[in-house]
Amino acid sequence: MKGSLDILYEDDDVIALNKPAGLVVHQGAGVKDEETLADILLIQRPEIQGVGEGSERPGIVHRLDKDTSGVLAVAKNQKAFLFLKDQFKQRKVEKTYLAIVQGNVKAPRGTIRYPIVRGKLKQQALRTGYRVQGTEHKTIREAETEFLVRKRLQDATLLELHPKSGRMHQLRVHLAALGHPVLGDQLYGGKVASKRTHRQMLHASTLHFLTPNGLRLSIEADPPEDFLETLENLAPTRNIDNEPSIEYH
Known about the structure:
ten-stranded mixed sheet, alpha+beta, two-stranded antiparallel ribbon, Pseudouridine synthase, 12 strands
């Protein structure tokens, strides 16, 4: 899709598109001489120039990591931008992700409520289970993720994820903290999970939100081919006795 847009829905206010893995959403630290989704948007929808909060992020109300695929909403005018931005801020937008993670998650469902704090190396790092000292303490943010086991695989699990907050790298950090990092995650996956696939197996499958004209949308995007191929290559494992639903704090 590079160089074009995979449009899932569009009206006078909103574009919902299917972002491919490997495409950065907008320019920022560490992004040099690389085509971004924002670049493509400005070419194909030049009317969004000036919409939003800065020239590098035209119409962008939320983001997905470079190697995360799936549904992304873009505002086409400033009124729509402010309306959608407020929905995200008020946590009225419902997001569903699919992730293939390392190991067998035994609990059929659960809730993760680990706080997240930005690390010293421009990375997001989990600071739970031990004391946070100094100025770092001020950067702690509450975060909540619900998960549901969709399929058990060979030393891996397909999870459905529902983030209830929108912290940077939240899903990846929470899953790594459980000992079940996303396969292919180069930052949080560790020596094993980071090498099992060529990129992180995380897909934004569904986005539910209200448009400025009062229409409630439910936008879905099927997982990309490499995600499905990874599932096929991981033969289902034997049945594992489920543990009760668990809350992690």
